[in-house]
Write a structure and sequence with these properties.
It is built from eleven helices and ten strands. It is an alpha+beta fold. It is elongated. A hairpin with a 2-residue loop joins β5 (70-74) and β6 (77-81). The N and C termini lie far apart (95 Å). The strands form two sheets. Strands 1-2-9-4-7-10 form a six-stranded antiparallel sheet, covered by helices on one side. It is 47% helix and 18% strand.
Length: 293
């Protein structure tokens, strides 16, 4: 028995193709023309989905799989899409894609082009070679897709088209720049965690190696991201926290300079005084005299 093949027409299918006259309007819009969609859709449980274009397509085609499995044949290679993976088919490349017979895929897909399309595609590739990319599922990514689809479904007004294509750009970059974006967020979290650790351990002297190790980062990477975030080296920042704490002791208590230094993990009171003077512009005793009630 020959297997049934279906290009479109699935239960729950959603699909919009931009009319030619609207596409011409987008091409003259300076906001939208850099990157815009020509078709967009969602195919849930797309059994027997099968599409072949021997002459390729005039746009890039993004296929983002969230359930099931499917296969993409392009430029002599076969790629398997599983849940939480995506692929971009290059412009004009002959291709064939289809859902798995046993576990058909559910996919979000977009045809896109514009002034930025080639550059964006190159960001997806590795050394110019396409491959399947796996990414964690994020609700916000789906929300961006839904917003773009809703805007296109409701109106072809200029502002709506602009906003729709800006949402499209965010949707695409949430996939293509996922690792870059999360590396930044992870670095920011590491710096915030390190600062919290410093604040909880002002009574200890840590080396740069110990602080980096505590965040499970190399010293060079830790020092770089810390300075990018705070403008200071980790040790300088840690010393600032210690001096800020010492100001509270000088202001609110009668502890000696030596006692305060010990509370901050500094055994050498002369070193503490020099550090205080360097950062505050006056000695600890002068600070107490000027500021204490």
């Amino acid at each position: 028995m020959q297997e049934k093949k279906v290009k479109e027409g699935f239960i729950g299918e959603r699909r919009i193709v931009l009319p030619p006259n609207i596409k011409r309007r987008v091409l003259t819009n300076r906001i939208a023309k850099n990157l815009y969609l020509t078709a967009i859709g969602y195919y849930p449980h797309a059994a027997f989905h099968d599409m072949e274009r021997k002459g390729g397509c005039g746009q890039y085609i993004l296929i983002y799989c969230v359930e099931g499995e499917g296969y993409i044949h392009v430029e002599g290679k076969r790629y398997t899409l599983a849940p939480n993976s995506y692929f971009i088919i290059p412009k004009h490349a002959p291709h064939h894609y289809c859902a798995s017979a046993g576990t058909p895929w559910s996919i979000y897909w977009v045809h896109f082009c514009g002034d930025y399309d080639e550059q964006l595609y190159q960001r997806f590739t590795i050394d110019g070679k396409p491959d399947v990319r796996f990414i964690p599922y994020e609700e916000n990514r789906i929300r961006l897709f839904e917003q773009a689809y809703y805007l296109l479904e409701q109106s072809y007004e200029t502002r709506d088209l602009e906003l729709m294509n800006l949402n499209l750009l965010h949707f695409l970059t949430s996939l293509i720049y996922h690792k870059d974006r999360n590396a930044v967020l992870e670095s920011e979290d590491k710096v915030a965690n390190s600062i919290a650790f410093m604040q909880d351990h002002l009574d200890v002297q840590f080396s740069i190696n110990e602080l980096a190790q505590q965040q499970q980062l190399s010293v060079s990477h830790y020092s770089r991201v810390f300075k990018q975030r705070t403008g200071h080296s980790p040790i300088h920042y840690f010393n600032q926290l210690k001096i800020q704490k010492s100001c509270q002791h000088l202001y609110f208590t009668d502890k000696t300079v030596k006692e305060i230094a010990v509370l901050l993990g500094i055994d050498d009171s002369f070193y503490f005084s020099r550090l205080f003077t360097k950062l505050m512009g006056m000695s600890p005793s002068q600070y107490r005299k000027v500021h204490k009630l």
